[in-house]
Amino acid sequence: MRRKRCFQRAFPSKQRYFSSAMEKVTRSKGRPAHEPAAITRRFVEAMAGAGVPQSEIASVLSVAVPTLRKHYRHELRRGAAVVETRLASRLMRIANGSDGTALKAIMFTLQCRFGWSRYAPPPRR
Question: I want to staple 63 with a disulfide (CB 3.0 to 4.6 A). Which of 20, 67, 78, 81 is the partner?
């Protein structure tokens, strides 16, 4: 009891001194919302364009994967399109050759892009 009384004498009614300051401060619960900046947008686009998985990009930015998808959807799509374009151009360059690798590249392209199969009969016209 004695300690409590000493504390009360040393700090009489803290609310009396800090009431106006305490009323003005309103904090929301949880973590603050993520604010994307121009530099992080360029970073996400570059990393997605380099083929880095979204989970790795999110861990570098210290955000969750759903937050990454929410705020950087456009950059992720553009980066994925850049990767796809690069791969397609390289594949077409290989397919222009005249060796066995070129034949495999052409068959792969036909199967993935156009639904071609060497086992299925050709569709009726």
Answer: 67
- Taking the C-alpha atoms of residue 71 and residue 36, their distance in angstroms, rounded to an integer, is 7
Which residues contact residue 91 at a Cβ distance below 8 angstroms, ignoring those fewer than 6 apart?
105, 108, 109
pLDDT tens, position by position, 19-60? 555 555 566 788 788 889 999 999 999 999 888 999 999 999
Q: Who contacts 67 (Cβ-Cβ below 8 Å, separation ≥6)?
A: 34, 58
pLDDT tens profile 73-107: 999 999 888 887 887 788 878 878 777 777 787 77
Q: At 25, is the secondary structure helix, strand, or coil? A: coil
In this predicted structure, what is the pLDDT of residue 95?
A: 78
